[in-house]
Amino acid sequence: MRTSAPRRRIALAAAAVTAAALLLTGCQTAGPAGSANVAEASELPPISSLTPIADPTAWEGPTTAVIGGPSLEPVADHPEAQLPATVISHDVTGDREVQVTDTSRLLALSITGTIAELVDAYGLADNLVGRDISTQIPGYEDLPVVTKEGHSIDAEGVLALNPTLIITDGSIGPTDVVLQLRDAGIQVVTVSRATNPEGTYELAREVAAALGVAPLADTLNEQLKQAIAAKETEIAKLLPADPKLRPRVAFLYIRGSAGVYYLFGEGSGIDSMITSLGAIDVAKEIGWVGEKPLTDEALVSLNPDVLLVMTDGLASAGGVDGLIEAQPSIALTNAGKHRRVVDVPDTLIFAGGTRIPDVLDGLARAIYAPNSL
Fold first, then answer.
1. Higher-confidence residue: 6 or 371?
2. Entry pTM
3. How many CA atoms lie within 13 A of 229 on its CB side?
4. Interstrand relation of 106-109 and 94-100 (parallel, antiparallel or unpaired)
């Protein structure tokens, strides 16, 4: 097998302010790799059986969202790939054409495990020879982990598995390592990164094309759309009748050990999640776009009733008490006064793909029926 030294490429420093880079940094600095990033699958009673609290803006105390599922079944079982398949790889250096010729030994790498979940959804999980730390597909937990220090690719570990194809969304790296693997003769396809339903549908098409099963994307996307719509209908029945009692929600990205506190807004992926929950996105109210450092003035003026955070992020700040101590402005908001903090497993809150209905389900329970947890 041919090997070569990593080549210098375009620096990724500018991406540090994006959600992907923030997630990457956070997972590398928060505790043991994957220690609290992925929740175990849980069987939960249907939302229709729950009695919502009368006033979700006044509930006292923190809640950990419990994510059930996976609820979507694969759309195929060991489908035959139509190869070779010519696809476009969205590399950091620019788009390039790749002709995929062999999908028999796959690595699907992303910071959320979404790509591997899509491989499973297409009935090809048996082709996986390894996994990233976030991939927790039932029955495939024993696959060798090829990420280290959180979400850094172990080049030697990858080469030892002799994969024929790597599909990644660029959310884990370093980029030079990915390029080195490509130079070593492994086919690498970089797909789009999904943080919301629309992005997920495009990602599903790209992954299906790379696997040589492009027609299956339409089937999967239709099932996913129906599942999301059905979940939104279920959630709507939990909402308080009085619009004034709909909770005002803000998402804070926290890495207490590094002193990092960001407020996420439009385009971050969390905005579509809050909308599907029937809650009020306070960042949207002031036109907050993307991910920006949190300011005391902004948070106090927004006055959220609920703060959404990542589980590992909250732990890095020392829990709710540590968070309020580090950011005293939180205590001036309704969320702070009521200690109304909802934490969600790190890799799931921004996971596009087949887990979207499950994440919506878990968040709805935590916000509207926390007593059920």
1. 371
2. 0.87
3. 6
4. unpaired
Three-point CA angle 104, 109, 111, nearest 5°: 160
C-beta of residue 361 within 8 angstroms of C-beta of residue 44: yes
Spatial separation of the C-alpha atoms in residues 167 and 182, rounded to whole Å:
11
Q: What is the pLDDT of residue 288?
A: 87
Of residues 287 and 95, more confidence is placed in 95
- Best CA proximity match to 131, nearest among 356, 364, 347, 354: 347
Select, from the ranges 4-13, 24-33, 37-46, the one with the highest average predicted confidence (pLDDT): 37-46
CATH class of the 16-71+235-372 domain in this structure: alpha beta
At the top level of CATH, which class does the domain 73-225 belong to?
alpha beta
Region 201-223 average pLDDT? 98
Q: Where are the beta strands (DSSP E) in the chain?
A: 63-64, 85-91, 94-100, 106-109, 147-148, 152-153, 165-168, 187-190, 248-255, 260-264, 280-281, 291-293, 306-310, 341-344
Peptide bond connecting 138 to the previous residue in cis, omega within 30 degrees of 0: no
CA distance 363 to 126: 31
Looking at residues 193-208, what average pLDDT do you find? 94
Domain range annotation of the chain: 16-71+235-372, 73-225
In CATH terms, are 16-71+235-372 and 73-225 the same topology?
A: yes
The span from the CA of 140 to the CA of 126, in Å, is 9
Distance CA 315, CA 325 (A): 13
Tokens for 1? Answer: 């097998």
pLDDT tens sequence across 98-136: 999 999 999 999 988 999 999 999 999 999 999 999 898
Amino acid at 42: S
Beta bridge partners of 108: 167
